[in-house]
Amino acid sequence: MLKELLNCYKVAFKTRFEDFLNLSPELVEERDSDEQIDFEGVVSLVGITGEKKGRVIFYLSEEFLKMLYRLIYGEEESLNEMELYAVAAEINNIISGNAITLFNNESSKRLFLSPPSIFSGKLSITTPRINSKDLIYKIGNLKIAVSIGLEGGI
Amino acid sequence: MRVMITDDSPMIHKLLKKMVEEAGHEVCFIAENGKEAVENVLKVNPDLIFMDITMPVMEGIEAVKKIREMNVNVPVVFLSALGDDKTINSTKSLGIAGFLTKPFRKEDLFNLLKKVEGENA
Amino acid sequence: MYKSDMIISAVNESFFQFGFSNFVVEKIEERDITSSDFPVNVIIGCEGGWRGNIIIGMEKEFANFIVKTMTMGMIEDYRDKMGLSAISEMCNMFAGAFANKLSFNSKVTFISPPTVIMGDNIKVFLSKVNTTTVLYSSERGRMEISTGIWEIT
Question: Residue B114: inside a domain, yes or no?
Answer without folding.
Answer: no
